[in-house]
Design brief:
Layout lengths: L8 H22 L2 H8 L3 H15 L4 E4 L2 E4 L1 H28 L5 E7 L6 H12 L4 E7 L1 H10 L4 E4 L8 E16 L19 E5 L4 H12 L5 E6 L2 H9 L5 E4 L9 E5 L5 E9 L6 H14 L10
Length: about 325
């Protein structure tokens, strides 16, 4: 459809939406015109006029009162979702421009599993910042699934996960392997064994990480391959909590080795045959990386010997 000036109505609405995109995104997250205006650094009357003008251009209200605040209408939500994506893309472009001008002042958003935050991630950041002291990092921890979802959506730049993701929109490289052990209480019937077969754990009560964590999927798959469904007494979100429950005698768990040695009350027994999981670095394949992000990615790949023989991380 064409308007009197010769342009499409859609283009006219887009022109109206563009200046208000940041306001719509702020309203989506705050449900408050006052807080949204403060977040944008504009007077509330200015934000109110922008919102009213956009509602008039659309031909439908974008917000309705809700208690002491406001909430977006269905139409408002549609526009706010689009505005959020647009502003995120623009933010990404601004980051790339700034880092093209001064790559050493860049910002990297790194996602990783809780288990990797004990030594792997701190060691990588320490060594990288020795040569790039002005690079800033934002660190995001979570389950494997949440980290993969966030890097796919663009909320994070790089991810250290196990196993590496297979999503078509992501590229990854295996950095190292990590052996898994059966963690049992120190007075457990298997505590003195040199190794344990998965089938011997069929009658045990398990303490596990929640669904969505890579270790949970590995444990479920190993139990299924051994011919049984594990009895799960407790589920947690952090390996330290799981180990604490094992030490209290509440079950057994499959976990990587605790460095430098198992905590009091826990014995770690190798599996027979040996079981390992791959730890990989992932990044988006459908958008270019800002310079600082690309520099850190290459640093991690070199540290792992990803272009040749792999070697464990320190």
């Amino acid at each position: 459809m064409v308007n009197e000036s010769g342009g499409s109505v859609l283009s006219g609405l887009t022109a109206e939406l563009a200046p208000a995109a940041a306001l719509l995104r702020a309203l989506k997250h705050t449900s408050s015109l006052t807080r949204a205006a403060a977040e944008l650094g504009v007077p509330q009357p200015t934000a109110s006029r922008r919102l009213a003008a956009l509602s008039a251009a659309v031909g439908a209200p974008l917000t309705v009162p809700a208690g002491r605040g406001i909430r977006l209408t269905r139409v408002g939500h549609v526009l706010a979702d689009a505005a959020e994506q647009a502003v995120d893309i623009l933010d990404h472009g601004v980051r790339r421009v700034r880092e093209e001008i001064d790559p050493e002042s860049g910002h990297v958003v790194l996602g990783f599993l809780h288990l990797l935050g004990r030594s792997l991630v701190p060691g990588l950041l320490r060594d990288f910042r020795a040569d790039h002291p002005r690079t800033r990092f934002s660190l995001v921890q979570g389950s494997r699934q949440s980290i993969v979802d966030r890097i796919t959506s663009g909320a994070i730049d790089l991810a250290l996960v196990a196993p590496p993701p297979a999503e078509a929109t992501l590229e990854s490289v295996v950095l190292t392997e990590q052996e898994l052990f059966v963690a049992v209480p120190d007075d457990h019937r298997l505590a003195s064994r040199a190794d344990v077969r998965m089938s011997e754990l069929a009658g045990e009560v398990f303490v596990m990480l929640e669904h969505g964590y890579g270790l949970r999927q590995i444990t479920d798959d190993l139990c299924a391959a051994a011919g049984f469904t594990p009895t799960v007494a407790f589920e947690g979100q952090e390996s330290d909590t799981v180990r604490g429950l094992v030490a209290a005698g509440l079950g057994v768990a499959l976990l990587p080795a605790f460095e430098p040695r198992p905590p009091s009350g826990v014995v770690e027994i190798p599996l027979a045959p040996r079981v390992t999981r791959e730890i990989g670095l992932a990044w988006p394949s459908d958008r270019p990386l800002p310079p600082a992000v690309a520099t850190f990615r290459e640093f991690v790949r070199r540290r792992a010997g990803a272009d040749g023989a792999q070697r464990p991380f320190a």
